[in-house]
Design a protein that fits this description.
Length: about 210
């Protein structure tokens, strides 16, 4: 019986030794992925609230559209900053009217194709739609999207410029961000930019710490 007790005590000692978490313990958790070079810490500049002032009553149609484009630019960049927009005065509130408007943010220009149309079920209600020819990717906006979607301790990115023109809705593997949670770096995620802002499609949610 004494021999069995000694053997059991020795086995328990091995278990406790194997579970140690000392500074020299090689079994301590390590980052799941290499860390990207660019650290974007909170607080990141948040998107600016609604633009003020709104167009005054009786404002020309092209001024109303330009104001709407400024709002769309701020949605796209997902961070604060000054947006400008201008449309040709020839743009009228008339079905079928078309124009090309120009917006800026951080000295980057985007052209927008504008179309005025009527709704089939409301023929007296004129609307306008727009499609940007390019998008703006903002580093802080991308980081805000990661913090909002995955709530990590830290966001790291792959050398995203402060602001750069990119194709709309195209996955860009050259511009990626990752989560860092409990000291572990997640899988780098390529960014896309839509009218609603930068976003990430996590393809590896089953992997621990892969996406936050």
């Amino acid at each position: 019986m004494r021999m069995k007790m000694i053997a059991a005590a020795g086995f328990l000692g091995l278990l406790l030794t194997g579970c140690g978490t000392g500074a020299d313990d090689d079994s301590a958790p390590k980052p799941a992925f290499p860390e990207l070079p660019q650290k974007v810490m909170k607080p990141v500049p948040e998107p600016t609230g609604g633009l003020r002032p709104s167009p005054p009553p009786g404002a020309a149609f092209h001024e109303i559209v330009a104001f709407g484009l400024r709002e769309k630019v701020l949605d796209m960049v997902n961070t604060d900053g000054t947006a400008t927009a201008r449309c040709p005065a020839s743009l009228k509130s008339k079905e079928g009217a078309k124009a090309v408007c120009v917006s800026t943010w951080e000295d980057l220009k985007i052209e927008w194709d504008i179309l005025v149309y009527k709704l089939p079920d409301a023929p007296d209600d004129l609307k306008w739609s727009t499609e940007p020819r390019m998008a703006i990717l903002a580093r802080d906006g991308a980081a805000n999207a990661v913090y909002t979607s995955y709530a990590p301790d830290l966001v790291r990115c792959n050398n995203i410029p402060k602001a750069v023109l990119v194709p709309v809705e195209r996955e860009m593997k050259e511009y990626t961000c990752q989560t860092v949670t409990d000291g572990r770096a997640g899988k780098p995620m390529p960014v896309r930019v839509s009218l609603g802002g930068p976003y990430f499609r996590c393809q590896a949610k089953r992997e621990v710490h892969a996406c936050g």
